[in-house]
Specification:
- The complex is a heterotetramer of chains A (104), B (495), C (484) and D (679).
- With 104 residues, chain A is an all-alpha fold.
- In chain A, 76% of the residues lie in helices and 0% in strands.
- In chain A, α1 packs antiparallel against α2 and α2 runs antiparallel to α3.
- Chain A is elongated and about 55 Å long.
- By secondary structure, chain B is mostly helical.
- Chain B contains 21 helices and 2 strands.
- In chain B, a hairpin with a 3-residue loop joins β1 and β2.
- In chain B, α10 runs parallel beside α13.
- Chain C is globular and about 65 Å long.
- Chain C has one domain (4-481).
- With 679 residues, chain D is mostly helical.
- Chain D has helices at residues 5-25, 31-52, 85-108, 115-134, 138-156, 179-208, 213-218, 220-229, 233-248, 257-260, 266-275, 278-298, 305-326, 332-353, 361-393, 409-423, 429-443, 447-472, 487-505, 507-525, 545-572, 578-584, 586-596, 601-648, 655-677, and strands at 66-70, 76-79, 168-169, 176-177.
- In chain D, the strands form 2 sheets. A two-stranded antiparallel ribbon of chain D has the order 1-2.
- The chains are: A mainly alpha (104), B mainly alpha (495), C mainly alpha (484), D mainly alpha (679).
- At the B-D interface, α9, α12, α14, α17 and α18 of B face β1, α5, α6, α9 and α24 of D.
C-alpha cells in the first residue's frame, strides 16, 4: 500500500501547480484551468483521505462532497467564461496583463 | 431649590433643542439665535442653582445614567463638585455670551458668504453651536472617562463644521487639520482611559482611577492622557495647529477653542494630578519646564503677529502654559491656581477674540498695520479690549491677578523642585508673565490708539448685542477679582 | 426545506426572473425590484423572528427530515448574522429599485442579489464545513456576477474576472484546507470537529489546515496581503452591490472563519491570535493609508473597508468574549456605516455620473439629505462617540488591552485618527463652495434616500443606545465560545 | 471718636471710588454737576483721612481684617485696612494733594476731550493709591499698586489720538514721542517691576504663610529664620521686592518711563509725581524697612543687608543721574520730571540709609517720609503752576515761554516759593527734609553716597533757577497779554505754596515729631528693638553731631549757591549766555549732548528692547514657528501621502502579482509555523 503521504504530496503538488499557473500564465482561460486544477487537488485530497480514515472502508461523505464540489467548479468555470467573453469584447485580448485599468 | 436632573438637563436641553433650532432657523432666520441663547441662559441658571446648592451644602451633586452595561459598564455619569462646577459654569457662561454675540456677527458672516436671504444657514449655525456648551460642560461634569471622551469629541464636530462652513480664508484645509490634530489628541486620551480601565477591572469611572495608583501602568496612563491634552493645550512643539484654527475660525468660536485648550488644565487636575498624584509626580518638572518654554515662546510668537486674530491665538498658547506651570508644581495652591487661572484667562481671551471678530467685521481687515486710532470710533470696543488685556496681564481689579498669585504661590512652593531649580523656575516663570503685558497692550495701542487713518473714517461702533455680552464677561471677571472667594471657595474645598 | 428565511430567499431568487419576464410584458420596469424587495423583507421578518426565538432560548426548528437534515444549526450567532445580512440586503434592494431601473435584465440582478444573501445566510447557519462551503460558493458566484453586472463597461468586467480568479483560488485553498480537516477527523460537523480537535494537542497537519483555511477565508475577507481584489471589485460594482460587498460579504468571510477557528482550530488559539494581531495592524494600516490619496470615492471607501477588517481582526486576536463581541458588533456597525456610505456614493453617482471626489464639491447644498446621511456615516466610520462605530471600536480596544495586546488597540485608535484624514475629505468636498459639475443636481429620489436614512438612523440609535444590540452581540459571542 | 476708625479707613478710599462711579453715572446730567460731584467725593476721602490723623499720636496700629479668600488646605487670606502712623501720614498726603489737584482740574480740563474718562481714571487713581497705602496686606497693596499702574497708563495716554500738539520730546534731532506710546511705555516698564514685586510677595508668602503686614512684623523671627536657611533666599527676596518700587518710583535703571509720562494732561503729571504712583515705591520700601532692619541687625542675617545697600545705591545714583539731566532738559515738564526722579532718589537714599547702622532705622524712615511730604507739596505746586504756564503759552518748550511777571504775579510768586523749597533754601520745607537725608548719609559714614547727594544739591539749584529764569525772566519787556490763572486753579497751588512755607517754619519740630511717632510705633509698640553697638555697626556718630548740625547745612548752602549762581547769571540776569559758553567748548557740548540723550540709557534700552522686538520679532516666526509648522502641518501630511502613494503601488492591477502576494503570505505563514511552532 502506498503511504498516505505520497498522495498528499501529489495533491499538494497539484495545488502548487494550480497556483503557479495562476501566478505566471497570461491567458485568462488558462487561469481558469489553474483554478480547476486547484479545486481538483482538493477533491483528490478528499478521495484519498476518505479511504484512509477507516481501514477497508471508504467514507461516502467524501465522495458526495467531491460530487458537489465538481458541480460547483463547473459553475465557477461557467461564470468565469461568461465574464471572459465580455473581457474579450471590451479588451480584444485574453491576456490578463492587458487588463490594467484598475490599479492604485 | 431642588430641580430634578439638574445636570442632565444642562446637557440634554441644548441637545434636544439643537434640531429644533435648525428647523426653526429656516423660518425665522437670525432670530433663532435668541432662542438658542435663551436656552443657554436657562442652562446657565441651572448650573448657578446647582452651584448655590454646592456652596451651601458642600456636597457634590452626582447623577448617573447607564449607557451600556453589557461587556463593560459605560455610563453617563455627571458630577458637579467643587472642582467641576465652577469650570462648567464659567464655560456655559462664555458659550451663552458668545451665542448672543454671534447673532449679529453671524448675520454679517452669512450674508457675506451665502447671500442675504439665507435663513436656513442661521438655523444650521445655531444648531451646531448648541453642541459646544453640551460638550464643554459635559467634559467638565463627566464622572466617567468614556463620557468625557464622548464630550471631547462632541465639541470637535461643531467646530469642524463651523470652521468649514463659516471660517475665513483657507477654512477647508484648516478644518481638516484641526480635526485631525484634535482627533489624535482625543485618541491618545482614549488610549490612556482604556488602559486605565483595564487596570481598574473594567471601570471607566474617574473615582476608580485612584486604584491604579502605584501600578506601572499608571505611568503610561498619565503619559498618554497628558500628551493628548498637551496637544489640545497647544504646548510648545504641539501647538502648530492652534494659530491656524484660531486664525481661521469665527471669532467667537475661536474663543471657545481657546476654552477647550484651557480645559486641559481642568482635565489634568481632575484625572491625573489628584487621583494619581504619586504617579504624576515624575511629570511635574517636565511639565513645568515645558510650560515655561511655551510661555516664553508663545509670548514671543504673539509679538510677531500682525494679524489681529492670530495675535490672540498665539497668546492662548502662552496663557494656557501658565496654568500648565501651575499644575506642574503639583502643590494644592498650584493646582487650584492653575484651574483658577484657566477660568480667569478664558474670560479675558473670549473677550479679546470676540473683539477681534468685531474689528474684522467693522473694518473688514485683520491686519493691525492698517489699523489705528479706532478708539475714537469704537470706544466700547476699545474699552473691552483693554479690559480683556487687563485680565490677561493680571491687572486688578479683574480676576487675572488673583488667579496668578494663588498659582504662583503654588509654583514657588514647587513640591517637586530641588536645588537651584527651586528658585530658578518660579523666578523665570514670573518674569515671563511680563511678556503678557507687552503682547496684550502693544496691540491695543496699534489698533485703537494713534491717529485714525482716512480709510477707517466710516467705521462704526459694534451693535450693543455684540458688546454687552462681553461686558458681562468682564463684569464676571471683575467679581472674581474683587471677591475671589467666589471661585476659591469651591477650589479650596476640593484641594 | 431548509430554514424558513433561506427557503423564502430561494423561492424569491427563482421566481424573480419570472416576475421580471412578466414585468417586461406589462411594462412595469420596477416590478421585479419591488417583488424582490418584498421577498427579502419577508425573509428578514422570519429571520428576525428566529433571532427572537434563539434569544429566548428556544432552539428553532431546523428541518428534521429530508436531504439537508442537521446540516443547519441555528444559534444566536447565526441568526444575528443572518439578520444583519438580510437587513442590509433590504436596504440595497430598495435602493436598487431606482438605481438599476435602466439596466437590462434587472430581474436577473435581483435574483443574483437574493442568491447572494441566501448564500451568506447559509454560510452563517451551516452546521458543517461542507454545507458552509457550498453556500460559500453560492455567495461567491453570485457576487462575481454582480460585480461584473454592468458588462457594457470594461471596468466591471475586468474587476469581475480578477475577483473571480482570486476568490476562486481562495475557495480552492479553502476546500483544500477543509479536506485536510476531514482527513484528520473524518467529520465536517462543527460539533464533531470541536470534540475531535478542540482539546487535542495540535499536530503539524492542523497547522497546515489552519494555514489553508485561513488563506481561503482571508482572500474573501480581504486580509492584507490577500486583499488586492477588493478595491477593484468594490469600486467597479454597482453601488448597492458595493454596499453589500463591503458591508457584509467580506465580513461573512470573517464570520465563517470565526466558526471554524473557535471549533476546529481552538487548540491553536495562542498561535493564530498572535498572527491575527499582526495582520490586524497591517491590514488596518494599509487600508487606511492607501485610502488617503484616493480620488475615486468608491475606491476610497473600498480601502476603508480593508481598514475596518483590520479592526475586526483585532477582536478575533483577543479571542475573548469581549473581543468576539466587539468583532460581531463591529460587523453590524460596519454594515450600517459602510452600507450607508456606499449607498450615498451610489446616490451621488446616480445624479452626478462621476465617481471623482473633485467633482462633488458643493454637493451638500444640492443634495442635503444624502450629504447629511453621508456625513453621519463618515463620522461613525471615524469612530466619533455617540455614533455606533465608537462603541464597537471601544469594545475592540478594551478586548485587546485586556489580553496584553494594547499595541493593537493603540494602532486602532491611531488608525482612526489617520482615517479621519480621508473621510473628512469627503465631508469637506461636499460642503465646499459649488463647482460646475454639481450645479444642476437634484436631490436623490425617495427610494434612494429612504433606505439610506433608515441605516443612518440606525447608526445614531445604536450609537446612543448600544445595548440594543450589544446584548445580542455578546450572547452571539458566547454562543460561539460555547461550541467547544 | 465719631466714626469707627476702621470704617474711616475703608471710606477713605471708597469715597473716591464712588466719585469714579459718579463720573460715569452723571455723564448725562451735565458737566459741572458731574465735575463737582467727583471733586466732592475726593474731598470726602480727604476728610476721612483727616479724621484719622489724630490717631497718629497713639502710635498704634488698628487692623481688623475681614475674610476674603479661602485657600486650599484650610488656610485663608483676610483683608482689611491697616491704620498706623505710616499709613495715616501717607493717606493724608495723598488725599490732600489729590484734592488740590482735582479742584485745579475742574478748570483745567474744561475744554479737553474725553472728560468722562479723565474724571473716572483720576478718581480711580486716587482710590487705588489710598488703597495701596491703607492696605493691611501685601496682596491688597499690590492690587492698589497695579491699579495705579493701569490708571497711569490710561491717563498718560489720555490724548490717545496722538495729535501733533500732544507730542512730546524733540525738537530735532531728538525724537518725538506720542502720548499713546508714552502710556504704553509707562505701563510696560512698571509692569516689569510689578512682576518682580509679585514674585517677591509670593516668594515671601511661601515662607511666611501670611501676607498681612502686621503678622509679618510679628512673626518676623520665625519666617526670617526659615528664609535664612536657604542660601541666597534673602538676597533673592530683596531684589525681587525692590524691583517693584524701583520701577514704580522711576529709579535707575527702570526710570526712563517717567520723563515721557508727561504726555498726559498736566494735573495727571502732578498726581503722578506728587501724590500717587511714584510715591508708592517709597511707601512700600518704608513698609519693608522694619522687617529687613530686624533681619540685618537683630536677627543678624548679613544677607538682608542687600536690601539696604541696593536701596541706598539706587537712590543716590538716581538722584545724581537725573539731576544732571534736569539741567539740560528743554521742556518745562520734563525738567520737573527729572527733578522728581532726583528727589525720589533722595527719599530712597534716606530709606536705604535706615539700615546702615543698628540705630538709624527711625532716622532713615523719618528722613525719607519727611522728604516725601515736603516734596509732595512743592512738586504738586510746581506742576500745577506748570500746567497754567503751558496753557497760557501753548508750548511745552521753555525756550518758547515768555511770561509776564506782573500780570501773572501770583503764579510767579507761588512758583518761586515752591522752587526754592525744591532747591532746599532754608527755612522752606525742602531744606529740612533734605538736610536730614544728607546728615544721615554723612553720619552713617557713606561718603560716596553723601558726595553724590551733595553734588545733586548744586544740580538742583541750577536747574531750578534755570527753569524759573527761562519761564519768567526771559526779558524785561512785560508781556501784557498773559492772564493770571482763574482762582479755581490758582488757589490750589497757592495753598500748596503756603503750606510749603508753613511746614518749613516748623520744619525741625515736624521732623522730630515724625521721628518720635515712628520710634514709638516701630520700636515701642511693634518691638523692633534697636540695640546700639550690635556687631558690625559703624561707630555711632553721636559725639560729632554738634559740629555737624552746623557744618552740613552750611555745606549744602554752599552747594546751592554754586549751583544757583551760574544759573542766575545765564537765565535771570542774562549776564552771560549759556549757549555761547556751550558752543565755545567742545567738552561742554559733548556733555550737553550726553545729558540730553539721557546718558544714552533710554536709547540703549529702546534699541535693545523696543526696536529689537520690533525688528526681530519676526525671527521667532521665521526660524522656529515656520519650520515647526512646516514639519507638522506639511511634513507629516506629506509623509503620509508619500507613504500612501507608495502603498498604492502595491495595487498593480496585475493578477499574477496579486497571486504572488497570496503565495508570499502562505510562505510567510509556513515559515512562521516552522520557526514558532515546530520547535
Amino acid at each position: 500500500m502506498i503511504p498516505l503521504s505520497y498522495y498528499l504530496i501529489l495533491t499538494m503538488g497539484l495545488y502548487i501547480v494550480g497556483m503557479y499557473c495562476l501566478a505566471t500564465k497570461r491567458n485568462v482561460v488558462r487561469l481558469v484551468l489553474g483554478i480547476e486544477i486547484m479545486i481538483n487537488a482538493a477533491n483528490l485530497n478528499f478521495i484519498v483521505l476518505s479511504a484512509n480514515w477507516t481501514e477497508g472502508f471508504i467514507d461516502p461523505l467524501a465522495h458526495s462532497i467531491v460530487m458537489m464540489s465538481i458541480t460547483l467548479a463547473g459553475c465557477i468555470s461557467a461564470a468565469a467564461f461568461t465574464i471572459i467573453i465580455f473581457v474579450y469584447r471590451h479588451y480584444g485580448t485574453l491576456d490578463i496583463r492587458e487588463l490594467r485599468r484598475l490599479r492604485g | 431649590m431642588e430641580i430634578p436632573f439638574v445636570l442632565l438637563q444642562t446637557i440634554l436641553v441644548p441637545a434636544v433643542a439643537a434640531p429644533l433650532v435648525a428647523l426653526m432657523g429656516k423660518r425665522i432666520g437670525k432670530y433663532v439665535g435668541w432662542i438658542a441663547s435663551a436656552i443657554l441662559i436657562y442652562t446657565t441658571s441651572l448650573l448657578l442653582i446647582a452651584g448655590s446648592t454646592i456652596w451651601t451644602t458642600a456636597l457634590p451633586i452626582s447623577e448617573t445614567y447607564t449607557w451600556s452595561a453589557v461587556s463593560f459598564t459605560l455610563e453617563f455619569g455627571f458630577i458637579a463638585d467643587n472642582l467641576s462646577l465652577p469650570v462648567a459654569l464659567i464655560m456655559n457662561l462664555i458659550c451663552t455670551a458668545a451665542s448672543i454675540y454671534s447673532i449679529h456677527y453671524m448675520k454679517h458672516r452669512i450674508d457675506e458668504l451665502y447671500g442675504e436671504e439665507n435663513k436656513s444657514m442661521h438655523g444650521l449655525y445655531h444648531a451646531l453651536y448648541l453642541l459646544f456648551p453640551i460638550g464643554l460642560v459635559g467634559v467638565a461634569l463627566s464622572s466617567n472617562l468614556i463620557a468625557m471622551y464622548l464630550f471631547i469629541e462632541l465639541v470637535l464636530i461643531p467646530s469642524y463644521f463651523l470652521l468649514d462652513f463659516f471660517g475665513y480664508r483657507e477654512r477647508h484645509r484648516v478644518a481638516t487639520m484641526y480635526f485631525i490634530w484634535n482627533q489624535v489628541a482625543a485618541g491618545l486620551f482614549l488610549i490612556g482611559a482604556i488602559l486605565a480601565s483595564t487596570a481598574t477591572g473594567g471601570s471607566f469611572s474617574i473615582n476608580a482611577l485612584s486604584t491604579i495608583s502605584g501600578q506601572p501602568i499608571a505611568f503610561w496612563v498619565c503619559l498618554l492622557i497628558l500628551v493628548g491634552w498637551l496637544i489640545k493645550m497647544a504646548a510648545f512643539g504641539l501647538h502648530v495647529w492652534l494659530p491656524y484654527a484660531h486664525g481661521e475660525h469665527l471669532a467667537h468660536i475661536a474663543a471657545i477653542i481657546a476654552t477647550i485648550a484651557g480645559l486641559g488644565s481642568y482635565v489634568i487636575v481632575r484625572l491625573l494630578a489628584v487621583p494619581l498624584a504619586a504617579d504624576f509626580q515624575v511629570f511635574g518638572l517636565p511639565i513645568m519646564v515645558l510650560g515655561l518654554i511655551t510661555m516664553v515662546y508663545g509670548g514671543l510668537l504673539t509679538l510677531a503677529q500682525d494679524d489681529v486674530k492670530r495675535l490672540y491665538a498665539c497668546s492662548t498658547i502662552s496663557q494656557t502654559a501658565y496654568s500648565l506651570v501651575g499644575i506642574g508644581s503639583l502643590t494644592a495652591m498650584g493646582l487650584a491656581g492653575g484651574v483658577f487661572y484657566f477660568v480667569s484667562h478664558i474670560l479675558g481671551k473670549s473677550i479679546l477674540l470676540c473683539i477681534a471678530g468685531v474689528l474684522m467685521m467693522q473694518t473688514g481687515s485683520r491686519d493691525m498695520n492698517k489699523m489705528g486710532g479706532l478708539a475714537k470710533k469704537m470706544p466700547f470696543t476699545a474699552a473691552l479690549a483693554i479690559l480683556g488685556s487687563m485680565i490677561l496681564s493680571a491687572i486688578p481689579p479683574l480676576s487675572g491677578l488673583q488667579a496668578e498669585w494663588v498659582m504662583f504661590v503654588g509654583i514657588f512652593q514647587g513640591g517637586t523642585l530641588q536645588g537651584a531649580l527651586q528658585f530658578a523656575i518660579p523666578v523665570i516663570a514670573i518674569f515671563a508673565t511680563f511678556l503678557t503685558a507687552a503682547y496684550t497692550f502693544w496691540p491695543v495701542k496699534r489698533i485703537f490708539f494713534g491717529p485714525l487713518s482716512s480709510e477707517l473714517e466710516d467705521v462704526k461702533e459694534a451693535p450693543k448685542s455684540m458688546t454687552l455680552p462681553l461686558f458681562i464677561l468682564a463684569l464676571v471677571s471683575l467679581l472674581f477679582g474683587i471677591y475671589p472667594d467666589v471661585v476659591m471657595h469651591f477650589l479650596s474645598a476640593f484641594f | 426545506m431548509l430554514t424558513l428565511p433561506l427557503d423564502l430567499l430561494f423561492l424569491f431568487a427563482i421566481t424573480t426572473p419570472l416576475i421580471g419576464w412578466l414585468a417586461q410584458k406589462v411594462d412595469l420596469p420596477r416590478l421585479s425590484g419591488v417583488y424582490a424587495t418584498l421577498g427579502i423583507l419577508l425573509s428578514a421578518f422570519t429571520a428576525f423572528q428566529l433571532l427572537l426565538q434563539t434569544l429566548g432560548g428556544v432552539v428553532p426548528p431546523t428541518p428534521t427530515s429530508g436531504l439537508f437534515n442537521a446540516y443547519f444549526d441555528l444559534d444566536i450567532f447565526g441568526s444575528f448574522a443572518m439578520v444583519i445580512q438580510i437587513g442590509l440586503g433590504i436596504a440595497a434592494s430598495i435602493f436598487s429599485i431606482q438605481y438599476m431601473r435602466s439596466e437590462s435584465g434587472s430581474s436577473l440582478y435581483y435574483a443574483l442579489l437574493i442568491g447572494m444573501i441566501g448564500g451568506m445566510v447559509g454560510v452563517v447557519t451551516a452546521a458543517d464545513l461542507f454545507t458552509l462551503f457550498v453556500f460559500w460558493e453560492m455567495m461567491c458566484l453570485t457576487s462575481y456576477l454582480l460585480v461584473a453586472f454592468k458588462n457594457e463597461e470594461p471596468e466591471p468586467v475586468e474587476a469581475g474576472i480578477k475577483y473571480l480568479l482570486m476568490s476562486s483560488a481562495g475557495s480552492a485553498t479553502l476546500l483544500f484546507g477543509i479536506s485536510l480537516l476531514y482527513g484528520m477527523t473524518g467529520t465536517l460537523n462543527f460539533g464533531g470537529l470541536a470534540t475531535a480537535l478542540g482539546h487535542a494537542t495540535p499536530g503539524p497537519w492542523l497547522y497546515i489546515a489552519l494555514l489553508f483555511i485561513f488563506t481561503g477565508f482571508g482572500v474573501k475577507a480581504a486580509i492584507v496581503p490577500l486583499h488586492t481584489w477588493l478595491p477593484d471589485a468594490h469600486s467597479a460594482a454597482p453601488s448597492p452591490i458595493s454596499a453589500m460587498l463591503s458591508g457584509i460579504v467580506i465580513e461573512t468571510g470573517l464570520l465563517a472563519m470565526v466558526r471554524v477557528l473557535f471549533t476546529a482550530l481552538i487548540s491553536l488559539q495562542t498561535y493564530w491570535s498572535m498572527v491575527f494581531a499582526v495582520l490586524a495592524v497591517i491590514t488596518m494600516t494599509l487600508g487606511n493609508m492607501t485610502a488617503l490619496v484616493q480620488d475615486d470615492l468608491k475606491r476610497m471607501l473600498a480601502y476603508s473597508s480593508i481598514g475596518h477588517i483590520g479592526y475586526m481582526l483585532a477582536g478575533l486576536a483577543a479571542g475573548t468574549v469581549v473581543g468576539l463581541t466587539g468583532t460581531i458588533l463591529h460587523i453590524l456597525n460596519h454594515a450600517l456605516m459602510k452600507g450607508t456610505a456606499f449607498l450615498c456614493a451610489g446616490a451621488i453617482i446616480y445624479r452626478l455620473g462621476s465617481r471623482n471626489l473633485a467633482d462633488m464639491s458643493g454637493l451638500a447644498r444640492r443634495m442635503p439629505k444624502i450629504a447629511v446621511a453621508f456625513s453621519i456615516a463618515i463620522f461613525a466610520l471615524i469612530g466619533l462617540p455617540g455614533l455606533n462605530g465608537f462603541v464597537s471600536k471601544l469594545t475592540l480596544f478594551v478586548s485587546v488591552a485586556d489580553v496584553n495586546l494594547a499595541w493593537v488597540g493603540i494602532a486602532i485608535i491611531l488608525n482612526s485618527a489617520i482615517s479621519a484624514g480621508y473621510y473628512l475629505r469627503i465631508v469637506r468636498v461636499m460642503i465646499e463652495t459649488e463647482s460646475e459639475p454639481s450645479e444642476n443636481l437634484r436631490e436623490a429620489p425617495v427610494s434612494m434616500w429612504f433606505p439610506i436614512w433608515i441605516l443612518a438612523i440606525l447608526i445614531i440609535t445604536f450609537g446612543i443606545w448600544p445595548d440594543l444590540v450589544f446584548n445580542i452581540a455578546e450572547r452571539a459571542a458566547l454562543a460561539i465560545l460555547s461550541m467547544t | 471718636m465719631l466714626i469707627d476708625i476702621h470704617l474711616l479707613a475703608w471710606l477713605c478710599w471708597i469715597f473716591p471710588l464712588l466719585g469714579a462711579a459718579m463720573a460715569i453715572l452723571l455723564i448725562r446730567i451735565g458737566r459741572p454737576i458731574r465735575d463737582y460731584a467727583v471733586v466732592f467725593f475726593t474731598f470726602l476721602g480727604f476728610l476721612m483721612a483727616l479724621l484719622m490723623l489724630p490717631e497718629i499720636v497713639r502710635a498704634e496700629s488698628f487692623n481688623s481684617p475681614a475674610f476674603w479668600i479661602s485657600l486650599p488646605g484650610g488656610g485663608s487670606i483676610s483683608i482689611g485696612m491697616l491704620i498706623d502712623p505710616l499709613s495715616i501720614i501717607l493717606a493724608n498726603i495723598v488725599a490732600f494733594l489729590s484734592l488740590a489737584i482735582m479742584i485745579y482740574s475742574v478748570k483745567y480740563v474744561e475744554h479737553e476731550p474725553g472728560q468722562d474718562r479723565y474724571w473716572f481714571f483720576m478718581s480711580i487713581f486716587i482710590t487705588s493709591m489710598l488703597l495701596l497705602v491703607l492696605a493691611d496686606n501685601l496682596i491688597l497693596m499690590f492690587i492698589g499698586w497695579k491699579m495705579v499702574g493701569i490708571c497711569s497708563y490710561a491717563l498718560i495716554g489720555h490724548y490717545y489720538s496722538d495729535e501733533e500738539e500732544h507730542w512730546l520730546g524733540g525738537p530735532d534731532p531728538f525724537p518725538f514721542r506720542t502720548p499713546s506710546r508714552a502710556g504704553l511705555k509707562a505701563l510696560l516698564v512698571t509692569t516689569f517691576g510689578d512682576v518682580s514685586l509679585l514674585g517677591g510677595i509670593v516668594f515671601l508668602y511661601t515662607y511666611s504663610g501670611t501676607l498681612s503686614f502686621l503678622e509679618l512684623y510679628q512673626t518676623a523671627d520665625v519666617w526670617l529664620a526659615a528664609l535664612a536657611t536657604d542660601p541666597g533666599a534673602l538676597t533673592l527676596l530683596s531684589v525681587l521686592l525692590l524691583g517693584g518700587p524701583i520701577a514704580k518710583s522711576a529709579q535707575f535703571p527702570l526710570h526712563e518711563w517717567l520723563p515721557e509720562a508727561m504726555a498726559g494732561p498736566t494735573p495727571v503729571s502732578a498726581l503722578i509725581h506728587a501724590a500717587t504712583m511714584v510715591k508708592a515705591g517709597v511707601y512700600f520700601i518704608a513698609r519693608l524697612i522694619p522687617v529687613f532692619f530686624y533681619a540685618t541687625w537683630i536677627a543678624n542675617y548679613p544677607e538682608a543687608f542687600t536690601f539696604f545697600a541696593v536701596t541706598a545705591a539706587v537712590g543716590a545714583i538716581t538722584a545724581f543721574l537725573t539731576g544732571t539731566q534736569a539741567m539740560v532738559a528743554v521742556e518745562l515738564k520734563k525738567v520737573l520730571a527729572y527733578s522728581t526722579m532726583s528727589q525720589i532718589g533722595y527719599m530712597i537714599l534716606g530709606l536705604g540709609l535706615a539700615g546702615f547702622t543698628s540705630h538709624s532705622m527711625t532716622l532713615g524712615l523719618t528722613a525719607g517720609i519727611f522728604h516725601l511730604i515736603s516734596h509732595g507739596i512743592f512738586k504738586a505746586a510746581l506742576f500745577l503752576c506748570a500746567g497754567v504756564i503751558i496753557h497760557t503759552t501753548g508750548s511745552i518748550y521753555m525756550s518758547e515761554m515768555d511770561l509776564s511777571r506782573r500780570s501773572m504775579r501770583y503764579t510767579w510768586i507761588f512758583m518761586w516759593v515752591a522752587t526754592m523749597s525744591l532747591m532746599g533754601i532754608p527755612p522752606l520745607s525742602g531744606f529740612w527734609s533734605k538736610e536730614e537725608i544728607l546728615s544721615l548719609s554723612f553720619e552713617t559714614g557713606q561718603f560716596i553716597l553723601f558726595a553724590l547727594a551733595l553734588v545733586t544739591v548744586a544740580f538742583t539749584a541750577f536747574y531750578s533757577v534755570r527753569f524759573m529764569g527761562k519761564v519768567f525772566h526771559k526779558n524785561d519787556e512785560e508781556n501784557q497779554e498773559d492772564k493770571e490763572a482763574s482762582p479755581i486753579m490758582l488757589v490750589p497751588y497757592g495753598i500748596l505754596a503756603v503750606l510749603s512755607v508753613a511746614v518749613g517754619a516748623i520744619g525741625p519740630w515736624f521732623g522730630e515729631q515724625i521721628e518720635h511717632i515712628f520710634e514709638a510705633y516701630f520700636v515701642d509698640f511693634l518691638g523692633f528693638e534697636v540695640h546700639s553697638g550690635t556687631a558690625g555697626s559703624i561707630a555711632p556718630a553721636a559725639q560729632s553731631t554738634v559740629p555737624l548740625t552746623l557744618l552740613l547745612p552750611l555745606l549744602s548752602l554752599v552747594m546751592i549757591v554754586i549751583g544757583a549762581l551760574p544759573a542766575y547769571r545765564f537765565y535771570v540776569s542774562h549776564a552771560s549766555s549759556s549757549e555761547a559758553l556751550v558752543e565755545g567748548s567742545g567738552i561742554l557740548q559733548r556733555i550737553q549732548m550726553f545729558l540730553r540723550k539721557r546718558w544714552y540709557i533710554n536709547s540703549s534700552i529702546n534699541r535693545v528692547f523696543v526696536d529689537g522686538t520690533i525688528r526681530y520679532r519676526h525671527l521667532v516666526q521665521k526660524y522656529i514657528e515656520d519650520p515647526l509648522d512646516c514639519l507638522f502641518n506639511e511634513g507629516i501630511p506629506r509623509l503620509f501621502s508619500g507613504l500612501s502613494k507608495g502603498l498604492r503601488r502595491l495595487q498593480t492591477g496585475l493578477l499574477s502579482i496579486n497571486i504572488q502576494y497570496i503565495l508570499l503570505f502562505i510562505l510567510l505563514a509556513l515559515i512562521s509555523i516552522v520557526f514558532l511552532v515546530v520547535p
